[in-house]
Design a protein that fits this description.
Blueprint: H1 32-43, E1 57-59, H2 73-91, E2 95-97, E3 100-102, H3 107-117, E4 119-121, E5 149-151, H4 153-178, E6 187-189, H5 193-208, E7 212-222, E8 227-229, E9 234-250, E10 262-266, E11 275-280, E12 294-296, E13 303-308, E14 320-324, H6 329-337, H7 369-377, H8 382-396, E15 404-413, E16 421-430, H9 437-449, E17 451-453, H10 458-466, E18 472-473, E19 475-476, E20 487-489, E21 532-534, E22 538-539, H11 541-545, H12 548-553, H13 559-565, E23 568-574, H14 578-593, E24 598-604, E25 607-608, H15 625-632, H16 634-642, E26 650-651, H17 654-676, H18 693-714, H19 718-745, H20 754-774, H21 779-789, H22 802-809, H23 815-834, E27 842-849, H24 854-858, H25 861-868, E28 874-878, E29 887-893
Parallel strand pairs: 1-2, 3-6, 4-5, 11-13, 17-24, 23-24, 25-26, 27-28
Antiparallel strand pairs: 7-8, 7-16, 9-10, 9-12, 9-15, 11-14, 12-13, 16-18, 19-22, 20-21, 27-29
Length: 905
């Protein structure tokens, strides 16, 4: 698949309106957002033409923002980048499929509903049709679970749906105000009936092909939210702890004398009862004599082996480690590869098991004191159990020295506040290459096919895929999500037959197995021997979000649309979710369609606060955008966003927004100024009328800018496109407009000269081109100016091309405009230093100009004399070879006439 498409606009310029320009007496940015947003909606300016062929379509897999409160300025930043791409591709002749989604299922919505309404979900409770939440709005209210009213799952889901609707309405309002050129007829929710059906259908197909499977296995578990957590959702954080040097006891030697203790260092002594082995590196000479022997654990007296594994670190602590089931992910690897027994002691609530584990009984060979110690620590939190075990180790003499404080790395759920535990549970997985080397290689190959913008982001994808240590855990023990669409039969003893799940037909989707029935069963068979039970879990939110191309594109219900938009052209997203959203979407598309889901991935950087820290809701340092947009204007905020390249972190800068506002105002004022030269007739966009050397030079420069801006936008470098356009625009305003205004005005003559016609036509061509070049970044200001003198919308006008401008320029040197501007600046500097008005006339002037530009400047001497108010001779003297800049050798200023007195009434 091609990563970029050729851009073939239908024409260089659109047709101007028949009547003259309708320029307002006073121009302003105020109110443009509301006025033009309403107009674009009424005119369906951004509506997608679904009759376009796939080759004519540019489709975008728009990120669905999480609907759990408010948008922040980081959203404005990255979504502006996407909108610039959409506007450019639309003007370049493509039909842009630009939908919007709302990510409203999953934990963020649940947490917001809990805090907003003061409730929590208890699935054991019955539905209450008359339930009224205890509060509406969570500000200043307690967020402790004990203070929240328990309600049924159905009541809880009703509140989730109620709150997301109001949040989505506010989000859409802000997006419209920002000027996103979304087709609002194409939008979706990740929890809608269609989204649930898509997610369930894809899962059932994964299951049918053997890509989805269920397993009882150790996995990361959040004790606060009571749910399993996938590898992609882990976040390593510093966590205070302490190293404890603990003695294990080898068997006595041949003479019966006790052997020297074997010391390990651990930060989790409470897991001593879960120890299953001591492990050292096979090349570590200190432990060669112990490999293959056993030791007994302190306090509990359980006999465990001493084994070798290359994952052990000889230079860390004592070089030998305790393997517990399970303290961390390394334990899981050792347990699996060395085929060790599972002795889990931590339950899902984060507490140690209440019943004494079987291997700690006297009958199993443990020390007699093990049962008594377990009676003390069973049921305690890991923190309290740790304290009790350390006290017991001191008393037994098995603690060497005192604990040494340290900061250890612990895994957290990215939305959680407590370290994760590893517990054994039955969960659903989808193969992603973490346990299948062939599939891993296929996923890496997909990464090489995908065009990353910027390209250096590709390594993040490759590192993630290369570092996978397990398949994708997709089941969650939550409430507001897409249900796992399976049931299980119960045997005559009421045991669940997990190996033979009952699945619905695809035409029955979406289903909720907790209320819907499997074929052949009745409601009274639910939960009874010989009957059935439903799978209680929901899917990970990424299991739905990984299908956004299929959801937005109509995979299930609109195959005609899907064929026109898939595989999509662009996935824009943040760098922090390459490992989750980007990778999981590649996995699902590869498994279902045998292709990439899109050709390009545009990766935005982060927004940094004044302390250079990433802005995020969790850090509490975000800025909400509504006030910024209203204070500075949407075009100004978009300018700030466009000033940062993809993949580059950017500082939150009000100053940059002020520069953007100044630019937008200048577009209005300069356009009004230029349009006034045409009078009632307007500016004629007729290339044949352009004959003056300065006009041709200006258009030659504009042709170069058009080429560079087009190439930059085609390569997803919106910042470069803005830089070259803005630089030219300010030179156009400061130099060209000042140089040609007298000639363009034409002295007010009814019959205009060829020189005046040339200036006006050049102004028309330049204004027409510049407005279109700025349109993707400054949609409101450019649309406002366009409406003064053109028909239709600038955003449906063809993207400008350089060839027609270059033909008009007829080989002119664009450097001429800069040289003329420098000469004019030199004349003005004389007046400025003399502290006289710029309207002061100069009787005679002599300028020393760069040797190579003297001849060319002679061709524009008339414009220089008029703009500089030189009423007599203007002599241009070539300077020495290699000389740069312009020097005023002679400048005879005439007296400034006094201002006429104000009339007295």
């Amino acid at each position: 698949m091609s990563n970029t498409q050729p851009i073939e606009p239908t024409s260089a310029t659109p047709a101007p309106r028949a009547a003259g320009p309708q320029v307002p007496d006073k121009v302003s940015l105020a109110g443009l957002e509301d006025r033009w947003a309403a107009s674009w909606d009424a005119q369906r300016t951004y509506a997608f033409d679904r009759t376009a062929t796939r080759e004519q379509v540019y489709s975008i897999d728009t990120p669905p923002p999480t609907v759990s409160g408010s948008l922040h300025v980081g959203h404005v930043f990255s979504y502006t980048h996407t909108d610039i791409v959409a506007r450019f591709r639309r003007m370049s002749g493509r039909e842009v499929f630009y939908p919007m989604g709302w990510d409203d299922n999953g934990l963020p919505t649940e947490r917001r509903v809990q805090n907003y309404f003061g409730v929590r979900c208890d699935p054991s409770l019955p539905f209450d049709a008359d339930f009224t939440p205890p509060q509406v709005g969570g500000e200043g209210k307690s967020t402790r679970a004990a203070d929240q009213v328990p309600i049924s799952r159905r009541n809880f889901i009703d509140l989730c749906e109620q709150l997301t609707v109001s949040d989505e309405r506010e989000f859409e309002s802000l997006w419209r105000y920002l000027g996103l050129s979304v087709d609002w007829e194409h939008h979706y929710q990740t929890i809608s009936g269609e989204s649930r059906a898509v997610a369930q259908q894809a899962f059932l197909r994964n299951l049918a092909r053997g890509e989805a499977y269920q397993a009882e296995a150790p996995g990361m578990w959040d004790v606060t939210f009571q749910t399993a957590v996938a590898q992609a959702e882990l976040e390593a954080r510093d966590y205070p702890g302490a190293f404890h040097r603990v003695a294990f006891h080898p068997a006595p030697d041949a003479s019966g004398a006790p052997a020297a203790p074997l010391y390990i260092e651990t930060t989790r002594p409470e897991l001593l009862p879960a120890a299953v082995a001591l492990i050292a590196h096979p090349d570590d000479e200190r432990y060669q004599h112990l490999f293959g022997t056993t030791v007994r654990s302190p306090l509990f007296g359980v006999e465990i082996p001493v084994l070798a594994h290359r994952g052990a670190e000889p230079d860390k602590g004592s070089g030998i480690a305790m393997c517990c089931t399970f303290g961390d992910l390394t334990d899981v690897v050792w347990w699996r590869e060395l085929q060790l027994p599972a002795r889990s002691v931590i339950s899902r609530d984060g507490r140690l098991l209440r019943e004494t584990p079987a291997w700690l009984t006297v009958e199993a060979g443990a020390d007699p004191g093990a049962v008594a110690l377990w009676a003390e620590i069973g049921g305690k939190t890991t923190f309290s159990a740790r304290t009790a075990v350390v006290d017991a180790l001191r008393a037994s003499g098995d603690l060497d020295g005192e604990p040494v404080p340290t900061q250890r790395k612990a895994n957290f759920f990215e939305k959680g506040d407590k370290p994760l535990e590893i517990v054994t549970s039955r969960q659903w997985y989808i193969g992603n290459g973490g346990r299948d080397e062939a599939l891993r290689e296929q996923m890496l190959a997909r990464g090489t096919e995908l065009a990353f913008h910027p390209d250096f982001m590709r390594v993040r994808y490759e590192n993630w895929v290369g570092g996978l240590n397990g398949d994708w855990l997709v089941s969650r023990q939550r409430f507001f999500g897409v249900p796992i669409p399976v049931w299980y039969a119960l045997d005559t003893d009421g045991e669940v037959l997990y190996d033979a799940p009952i699945v619905p037909r695809e035409d029955q989707l979406p289903i909720d197995p907790s209320s819907d029935l499997p074929a052949g069963y009745s409601a009274d068979q639910r939960g009874v021997p010989g009957g059935f039970v439903s799978d209680p879990d929901v899917m990970d939110t990424w299991a739905t979000s990984s299908l956004t191309p299929q959801i937005a594109g109509g995979w299930r219900t609109d195959p005609d649309l899907f064929a026109r938009v898939f595989p999509m052209d662009l996935r824009p997203q943040g760098q922090d979710i390459i490992r989750t959203w980007l990778f999981s979407t590649v996995v699902r598309s590869h498994l279902e369609h045998g292709s990439l889901p899109w050709a390009n991935a545009a990766i935005s950087g982060w927004i940094l606060d004044p302390d250079r820290k990433k802005m995020s809701k969790s850090k509490g340092n975000v800025v909400t955008p509504r006030g910024l947009l209203e204070e500075h204007g949407s075009d100004a905020v978009r300018y700030w966003a466009a000033s940062a390249r993809l993949g580059t972190d950017a500082a939150f800068e009000i100053g940059q927004m002020k520069i953007g506002r100044r630019l937008a105002i200048k577009v209005l004022n300069a356009s009004k100024f230029a349009l006034t030269f045409g009078g009632d007739r307007g500016l004629a966009i007729d290339p044949a009328l352009v004959t003056d050397p300065l006009d041709r030079a200006m258009l030659a420069g504009l042709a170069d800018v058009t080429d560079r801006a087009t190439a930059a936008l085609t390569a997803y470098d919106h910042t470069r496109a803005l830089e070259v356009t803005e630089t030219f625009f300010w030179a156009f305003c400061d130099d060209y407009l000042e140089l040609v205004k007298d000639r363009a005005y034409g002295g007010g003559a009814i019959e205009i000269s060829a020189a005046t016609a040339s200036a006006r036509a050049a102004l028309g061509l330049a204004l027409d081109t510049l407005l279109r070049l700025f349109a993707p970044v400054l949609p409101f200001a450019t649309e406002e100016v366009w409406s003064w003198w053109q028909t239709g919308s600038v955003h449906r006008a063809p993207w400008p091309v350089a060839a027609p401008l270059r033909a008009v320029a007829d080989g002119a040197d664009p450097a001429l405009l800069g040289s003329a501007g420098a000469a004019l600046a030199a004349l003005r500097k004389v007046k400025s230093e003399a502290k006289v008005s710029m309207r002061t006339e100069i009787a005679r002037a002599e300028l020393v100009v760069p040797n190579g530009s003297a001849t060319a400047l002679e061709t524009v001497a008339g414009d220089l004399r008029a703009a500089g108010r030189v009423v007599g001779d203007l002599v241009l003297v070539p300077g020495p070879d290699g000389g740069e800049g312009v020097e005023v050798r002679v400048a005879e200023l005439l007296p400034t006439p006094p201002k006429p007195p104000k009339s007295q009434e």
